[in-house]
Design brief:
By secondary structure, the chain is mainly alpha-helical. 71% of the residues lie in helices and 2% in strands. The protein has 20 helices and 2 strands. It has a two-stranded antiparallel sheet. Helix 5 runs antiparallel to helix 6 and helix 13 runs antiparallel to helix 14. It is globular and about 65 Å long. The N and C termini lie close together (6 Å).
Amino acid sequence: MIMLSIDISRLIGVFSYDSQAPMIFSSGFFLWLFTAFISVYVLLTQKNTARILFVTAFSYFFYYKSSGVYFLLLALVTVSDFFLARRMNITASAVQRKLLVFFSLLINLGLLCYFKYSNFFGTILADITGGSFSPIDVFLPVGISFFTFQSLSYTIDVYRKQIEPLNHLMDYAFYVSFFPQLVAGPIVRARDFIPQIRKPLMVTSEMFGRGVFLILCGLFKKSVISDYISVNFVERVFDAPSLYSGVENLVAVYGYALQIYCDFSGYSDMAIGIALLLGFHFNLNFDSPYKSLSITEFWRRWHISLSSWLKDYLYISLGGNRKGKLRQYVNLIVTMFLGGLWHGASWNFVLWGVLHGLALAVHKIWLELLAVSRLSIKIPNFVGAFFTFHFVCFCWIFFRNTSFENSLNMIRQIFVNFHVDVLPQMIIGYWPVFVLMAIGFLLHFAPDNWEKACCSFITRIPLWAKALIIILVVFFIIQVKSADIQPFIYFQF
């Protein structure tokens, strides 16, 4: 006889927020939960309102599992921006419209500044005034940088009369909280997403095949390549660069370039893939950025949703290229300065942003000099790609290190104590890291038609084969990622 008993306390624990294990796509618990979610979602295919309400509730639970009680901040931003946008739409006075969009900026950026930059700005103010500042204990809610920027894009678009505001708060809550992109992007524009909300739900075989492919790619990038090379090599070198030779430091920089790409793009791939399985389209967020032939092209390929947001809502608002060349260069530097600060409250992120801003300005000047002089200077593609990649890697040194001392030590080791003779020993000692790095860069630099061929293959295979692939991958990830999750259901014989 089989008896089923349920450990209620453990069940409650599994569904409660755990600050030590916030929920992400690659966690074992999410994979189990998503299986249950998709089962209910399919049953609500023909019931728009019920489906929207169900997905919104699930998204809020997902955010609760990621940040605890701070899901209330998401609700605050959603409600305030919804009503501010509606009021803005029926207000004829230009002054009042500006005041309403100012309130939206104040709420969103105010929350962002308090939770993310309180200690940073407090320390700066203390240094300027000669006073003292004791850091305060402020919890940083997961994804606050993303959902505040996403909601801001909506109110600014309504202010600019580029879109009409939504009539139903539930629809807007669905847009802001949609869980695939909630905590790590991409930043989805209202003009792209809102028209899809009430459309009849349809998932074509092409959407399903591409969704499965992107989820598998994202899991491999994030859970295998990024996590492994980070823990087993990159972190060790970056934590103590002086203890390693220059060649080890250089390989660690290359490793970090791959790690951060696989981390960010892997999560974006999973978000886009999950959205496709639910019948929604997101725009591409990473487009093989290390193939770029210039720094300008790099920012058209790297974190596209963020770079385009900065361009449309910050760079253009500052004047863009409409107020002369000098102002254009300043606007580029200021935009990237703030883009660096968006990534984190630290001077290393600021320097990273300024370096990229200067590089963008220099590239603009170079192109203009060529145009004025009418010189035809053809730089080979591999040269442009080589220098662009290594400039980006150089900037990653400051992005990754929390102290300038470590950054300078790493640069010093690379240029002064290179010691190429340790390379064979390093390859033997860290051969799994080198294999994964080789696979990662090979996949990144592979022709675009490889991805199309893989998507086409998955689309053509029978449904049972697709399901088998998903089950095998899910089983593998669960085994790897959720070994620490204790079962809350026991079978007694």
